[in-house]
Amino acid sequence: MAEAFSLQKVLETFRSCLSEEKEVYIKYYLAGWQELVSFMNTLGNVFSFISKDVVSKVQILENLLTGENGSHYVTVQSMVKYELENNLVDITKRGNHIESGCRTLLRLHRALRWLELFLDSLRTSKEDDKTSVMCCDAYNESLAQHHPWLIRKAVGVAFCAIPGRDTFFQVMNAGDETQVVALLGESLPLISEVYQITEDLYAKNNLLELP
Ligand SMILES: CCCCCCCC/C=C\CCCCCCCC(=O)N[C@@H](COP(=O)(O)O)[C@H](O)/C=C/CCCCCCCCCCCCC
């Protein structure tokens, strides 16, 4: 039987993500996403179009990591260097490299910002606050800016099926509410640091708008 989701495991994967030199290990980054997908899979079919998209992007990056050029895909930094130096990225319009590592990771990177905003809302929320509103606000501030109308509408429908705050606190499998809030407080700086390092790297290389 599959192991239950736990926030602690997500925290550990993001903790393992950063090397001493503050490079981001792709292997652990993907492990973090796999853990989050396992959580989303418990929420029902209405979320399956979202988890399928994440799974396919994780798979693209895993294939690169385990493929013949895998040594260049150990960290986000080495991937960016390798793909740019070898013209493996479609920079302004889609061409021959629609499954480049840089482009694929950028989609997950934007979603990481959503996660950061959502978890922070959850951490500071009050008993009567609605998770659908937290989720939607986090989405509008992050991913929505990169999604076309049709996707935004489908995501809006999925938000209506989001479980309530109590359920979220339970499925995080991290004890009572105070303990979950404390663990979120510990996890968020790690997620933020991984996000910011990637954001700065992509900004420096003009990769934030890859098609
Ligand atoms: C207790 C833990 C707390 C929460 C755990 C949540 C688990 C979340 C897991 C995944 C979150 C969503 C990840 C979404 C990745 C989207 C990547 C993307 O932007 N893809 C689009 C662009 O790709 P290309 O076409 O350019 O290749 C793609 O078009 C979009 C597809 C589907 C829409 C994704 C919307 C995501 C909205 C975020 C809300 C998630 C709700 C989760 C409910 C908890």
TrEMBL record:
The keyword Nucleus applies. It catalyses: N-(hexadecanoyl)-sphing-4-enine-1-phosphate(in) = N-(hexadecanoyl)-sphing-4-enine-1-phosphate(out); N-(9Z-octadecenoyl)-sphing-4-enine-1-phosphate(in) = N-(9Z-octadecenoyl)-sphing-4-enine-1-phosphate(out). GO terms for molecular function: ceramide 1-phosphate binding; ceramide 1-phosphate transfer activity. GO terms for biological process: negative regulation of interleukin-1 beta production. It is found in: Cell membrane; Cytoplasm, Cytosol; Endosome membrane; Golgi apparatus, trans-Golgi network membrane. It is a peripheral membrane protein. Pfam families: GLTP (PF08718). Keywords: Cell membrane, Cytoplasm, Endosome, Golgi apparatus, Lipid transport, Lipid-binding, Membrane, Nucleus, Transport. One of its GO terms (cellular component) is nuclear outer membrane. It comes from the Eukaryota. Residues 26-173 form the Glycolipid transfer protein domain. PANTHER family: CERAMIDE-1-PHOSPHATE TRANSFER PROTEIN (PTHR10219:SF20), GLYCOLIPID TRANSFER PROTEIN-RELATED (PTHR10219). Belongs to the GLTP family. This is Ceramide-1-phosphate transfer protein. It comes from Triplophysa tibetana. The lineage of its organism: Eukaryota, Metazoa, Chordata, Craniata, Vertebrata.
